[in-house]
Amino acid sequence: MKSRKVIQWVVYFFAVVGLVFVGGFFALAVSNQYHLGSLVKAFYLTETKYLKDPPTSSLVQGSIRGMVEALGDPYSNYMTKNEYQELGYRLQGSFQGVGIVVGADKDHQVRVIAPIKGSPAAKAGVKSGDVITAINGETTKGMTVDDAVKLIRGEPGTQVELLVYRESSKKELKFKIVRDNITLDSVESEMVKDVPGVGYIQISHFTMKTPQEFNQHLRRLLDKGAKSLILDLRGNPGGDFNSAVEIADMILDKGDIVKIMNRARDSRIFEATSGGLKMPMVVLIDQGSASSSEILAGALKDNKVAVLVGEKSYGKGLVQTVYPLAGGDALLLTTDKYYTPNGIDINQIGIVPDYAVANAEESKADAQMAKALELLRARLQ
After folding, report:
1. 291 an active-site residue?
2. pTM of the prediction?
3. CA–CA dist 146, 71 (Å, integer)
4. The CA-based dihedral angle spanning residues 331, 316, 232, 205, taken in that order and rounded to the nearest 10 degrees
């Protein structure tokens, strides 16, 4: 019996050694195939051979940031603890800066998606579509969106200088803007004075509080006798994904809201489950309407509960997911592409309005609003 047990233990020992060897072999093969071995070696050499003693945390952060930047995706970012906290503040509707949302266009230029209403940037005259060519005298050529945002941000009361190129006028403009604490409600509303029965709601951006704000404003308008609605999403750069879905659910009685799909082509469809706003409705969009505002506009258009008036939207049909990391840092990765209920991919394309109307550059008249009122007058008669 003892000899049999000894033999069994010997067999187990060599089986384990064999598994370790095979596992190590495959790990080495995988690391060589994907150059992970080079990454580990570079990290080790930098830690042990560099002239000075580098902080390990900085090397780790730099490695992660480099991986994300290598994706070439302007919407994926590595965020430090402070940057992650700031993202949380923005989604809650409070942040510091000049009040603009920026993105990268197809030519990798840093472009203003939209200035936030009432912000220092909006008051200074920065407009949707402006290309930021320099920040405090430093060119943005080859600069990532994340790097541009870091230069624009700063303590309230300090000044930042933006040099922008405005394609509509073919002019280069310089703005000196004082940074500020920005706390804004995302929803405003009123009854249209000259047209009885028409309510107006503007959503400037989407935070976690926006659905609650929208519901409160909508109920007030209904109590005041609103029989039709204008929903203004012009200059809305987006924000919280779930908030746009929730508002669409309040308006739609049934139907799909949005479909998202990941790299494995696993899809998820968000459907309307309640609500139903049974009244004529017009949605205003322009080139500053992006991301979550395009989700909402696309859902209302495809389900035929509203007509869209204005200009083609920005075209950000991608969804980002936040993954918290150790030490309070986080990874913001583009994980999904979204499609409107009719299966339309709007990324880098935008949503085309039912009625294309552009406001004149130097005119104070709002031709888009006038068209919306014209359409609703016809429906209310």
Report:
1. yes
2. 0.71
3. 14
4. 10
